[in-house]
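REQUEST
  id: r-88c1
  op: predict_structure
  target: VWDE protein
  payload:
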Amino acid sequence: TSLALQPVITPELLQGRVHLKCSYSRPSSSSPLRYAVVWSRLSTSGKKEQIRRDTTLQSSSYVEMNSVNLRLGDTVFCAVTAFMGDTPEQQSLPEESKGFYAGIKFLPESLQIAEDGKEHVLTILSTVPITCHGHDDSCKITLQLSTEDLGNRFLGPPNIALSACQVDLLQAPCSGGSCAAAALTVTAVTDFAQDGNRISRIRAEPIGRRDLLWRAYTPKDVKVTVRDLPTGNCYSFTDPHIITFDGWRYDNYKIGTFVLCQSTSRAFEVHVRQWDCGGHRAATACNCGVAAR
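RESPONSE
  id: r-88c1
  status: 200
  body:
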């Protein structure tokens, strides 16, 4: 039968090394039970691979993340069965834990933003403890951040801008699925071009680490979809004809300096200077200078 063992995987730092702990409930039984714990990981094809089998009297089992059997980026499971010591052939039904992702996570895992100037918070966290090596190591992981535009990446400016090029994940007690965390903001670049929705990705790469566990690991990229927003246009041309943002048309034959447009919500305005260009035949003016802030 099922004994409601409810196995759960949590990370721990033991003697300076990253371990995963499989904990399970001990049934209230007069007879002592033994437990068979099977550790497995998801392969690249999505199938579970057994990496270790442990038989113990304890209500927990440990496995080390040694970059051989278990690596950063793996999703790990533990399955537990219980049996009497004198009747090992009679076992309870196996109970499996939820998958534990060991590595760096981005929250949210993907972003959908628009060219509206808003800042979007992206949290980067490590689900495993940060180790310390030597006296010069400040118990942190430094991540180098970069962006890449997919599709028409050679047309126009970058799709997105980050508030930082590097972040540090500092060692902290593991709580709520996080053993270290940092945050940055992502903003869509307003390019004033009608170029449709565009896709970028954010990459984080650990730098400056000597230990193999982190040195050989590259976290999964974050996909960012930038939604294109329509851009307004106004015009002043020839002698000069004006077309406003809302499509109103008129002429301005005057000579002088004028405010062509001015924002009511931010420090943005355009001035235009018009000089006489009609001579004796017609009183017309032409744009001869522009200033913008």
